[in-house]
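Hi U.,

Before I forget, here's the chain from the pilot set. I'm dumping it here mostly so it's searchable later in email.
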Amino acid sequence: MALFTGCAKAGPQPFSILEEGSAAMTTEDFTFALAMEQSEWEELYGQIHAHRLPPPRAPGVDFEKNLILMVAAGWKPSAGYQVHISRIEHLGATLQVHIEVHEPPADSLRLTVMTQPYAVILVERPERLEKVEFLDPQREILHRLHLPSP
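Structure:
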């Protein structure tokens, strides 16, 4: 992991969705992860897809320009749950990741099966990054990742 210094801009941070699914193979209530190099991404991707044999290879990413964030919502009692990243804001040396967990409509037919909804996103690497904060729709911080100093 690295800390990048320089002039930091503020405002919305573009991102793209690499993958969304319902079987993240995580063990926590919520899981938040950051990959800033290929080896970290391969380990994270392997964890997400541990239920698949053989596990697929992680897609290549240009980590000089990008980083990867993953949010998994933990075990859910039925199909139909989704993790949605609504926006990312770049504030100084902080990325704020706004998360929503969508539940299936109350009147919908639901497959009774344990799921682990998740989203993996690709984000342009900021020049300066010290922490990543994951926020709920009320802007409460769910988790904070501090990056080590160089």
